[in-house]
UniProtKB/TrEMBL annotation:
<keyword id="KW-0333">Golgi apparatus</keyword>
<keyword id="KW-0175">Coiled coil</keyword>
<feature type="coiled-coil region">
    <location>
        <begin position="24"/>
        <end position="51"/>
    </location>
</feature>
<dbReference type="GO" id="GO:0004394">
    <property type="term" value="F:heparan sulfate 2-sulfotransferase activity"/>
</dbReference>
<protein>
    <recommendedName>
        <fullName>Heparan sulfate 2-O-sulfotransferase 1</fullName>
    </recommendedName>
</protein>
<keyword id="KW-1133">Transmembrane helix</keyword>
<keyword id="KW-0735">Signal-anchor</keyword>
<dbReference type="InterPro" id="IPR007734">
    <property type="entry name" value="Heparan_SO4_2-O-STrfase"/>
</dbReference>
<comment type="subunit">
    <text>Homotrimer. Interacts with the C5-epimerase GLCE.</text>
</comment>
<keyword id="KW-0325">Glycoprotein</keyword>
<dbReference type="InterPro" id="IPR005331">
    <property type="entry name" value="Sulfotransferase"/>
</dbReference>
<keyword id="KW-0472">Membrane</keyword>
<keyword id="KW-1015">Disulfide bond</keyword>
<dbReference type="InterPro" id="IPR027417">
    <property type="entry name" value="P-loop_NTPase"/>
</dbReference>
<dbReference type="GO" id="GO:0000139">
    <property type="term" value="C:Golgi membrane"/>
</dbReference>
<comment type="similarity">
    <text>Belongs to the sulfotransferase 3 family.</text>
</comment>
<keyword id="KW-0808">Transferase</keyword>
Length: 356
């Protein structure tokens, strides 16, 4: 064979090598196609087995109806933090409720107090769980997290929320109290007439821009315990982190609101089908902007960042952002600069006993 290769002209040797390489590529391609066909066949068999089991259970009893009833029994609570684009997001829920057939209810507390009395907590939990005419329901309001398990309910609501960079949130709230926004421009605000800028307020040590005013997102997630509202409490921050991970279905950030909406639509289409497109094209969804807002200077930001309260609120914000980005990374893929929701990436197989 070696002599044959030596005696072959160089052109024939090159042609033989090319032919061999092409043959190997062809074989590899065929093997890959066979593997893909095998995978598709396995998935098809698995889907067929699942359908057979579902049909058998449908004939045996009302399990499938029970599953559908659970979806219709769902309640979502959006205990919105002020000035985190909460109205923009809530408008989407209102715009979709008739089409997607669910109810939207605003939780209006006296003087926007986020802490309910014990008796109101009981009333609220009872309303949420037993008010069947309002299910499926989407409740929203400036109320701190409430642990429904404490009240012995069997089915807890689904919590969602959005948070924002703590300084940006405080700046927005500061100017909102003075100038309002373009959502209800004629409404008189509590601090209307005060022309002092946020920078001037910080320089003078004013109460409306004090570091203590940053303490809001942590207690909203911490809940109704007294320690939650002690400014600078390490316990409150730890509890807020625990609740965010364990009690909230999804927490987004204002700066990436569209991605938050996209994930909700993919995971909870019963409520949010059409939400992404509505956010991108709707007229009301992202119109609300605080008027007369002036961005703070670097000096003002640096002064606020020296406070322990900012450090804790910012730590909580960074924690929420990291959690959100982790969830997003496992739910979407990027193509040409756009994000696309991943299709189902698991299936069931080896299902026993086999049906006859």
């Amino acid at each position: 064979m070696g002599l044959l290769r030596i005696m072959m002209p160089p052109k024939l040797q090159l042609l033989a090598v090319v032919a061999f390489a092409v043959a190997m590529l062809f074989l590899e391609n065929q093997i890959q196609k066979l593997e893909e066909s095998r995978s598709k066949l396995e998935r098809a068999i698995a889907r067929h087995e699942v359908r057979e089991i579902e049909q058998r259970h449908t004939m045996d009893g009302p399990r499938q109806d029970a599953a559908l009833d659970e979806e219709e029994d769902m309640v979502i609570i959006y205990n919105r933090v002020p000035k985190t684009a909460s109205t923009s997001f809530t408008n989407i829920a209102y715009d979709l409720c008739a089409k997607n057939k669910y109810h939207v209810l605003h939780i209006n507390t006296t003087k926007n107090n986020p802490v309910m009395s014990l008796q109101d907590q009981v009333r609220f939990v009872k309303n949420i769980t037993s008010w069947k005419e309002m299910k499926p329901g989407f409740y929203h309001g400036h109320v701190s997290y409430l642990d429904f398990a404490k009240f012995g309910v069997k089915r807890k609501p689904v919590y969602i929320n959005v948070i924002r960079d703590p300084i940006e949130r405080l700046v927005s709230y500061y100017y909102f109290l003075r100038f309002g926004d373009d959502y209800r421009p004629g409404l008189r605000r509590r601090k209307q007439g005060d022309k002092k800028t946020f920078d001037e307020c910080v320089a003078e040590g004013g109460s409306d821009c004090a570091p203590e005013k940053l303490w809001l997102q942590i207690p909203f997630f911490c809940g109704h315990s007294s320690e939650c509202w002690n400014v600078g409490s390490r316990w409150a921050m730890d509890q807020a982190k625990y609740n965010l991970v364990n009690e909230y279905f999804l927490v987004g950030v204002t700066e990436e609101l569209e991605d938050f909406i996209m994930l909700l639509e993919a995971a909870l289409p019963r409520f949010f089908r059409g939400a992404t497109e509505l956010y991108r094209t709707g007229k009301k969804s992202h119109l609300r902007k605080t008027t007369e807002k002036k961005l703070p200077t670097k000096q003002t930001i640096a002064k606020l960042q020296q406070s322990d309260v900012w450090k804790m609120e910012n730590e909580f914000y960074e924690f929420a952002l990291e959690q959100f980005q982790f969830i997003r990374a496992h739910a979407v893929r990027e193509k040409d600069g756009d994000l696309y929701i991943l299709a189902q990436n698991f299936f069931y197989e080896k299902i026993y006993p086999k049906s006859n």
